[in-house]
Amino acid sequence: MLQNDLLRQLRYALKFNNPDVIEVFGLMNYTITKEELDHLLKKEDEQGFVACRDRTLSAFLDGLIIKYRGVQEGREPTLLRGKQRISNNDILRKLRIALQLKDTDIIEILALSDFRITKSELSAMFRATDHRNYQECGDQVLRYFVRGLGKRNRPDQK
Question: Which domain of life does this protein belong to (predicted)?
Answer without folding.
Answer: Bacteria
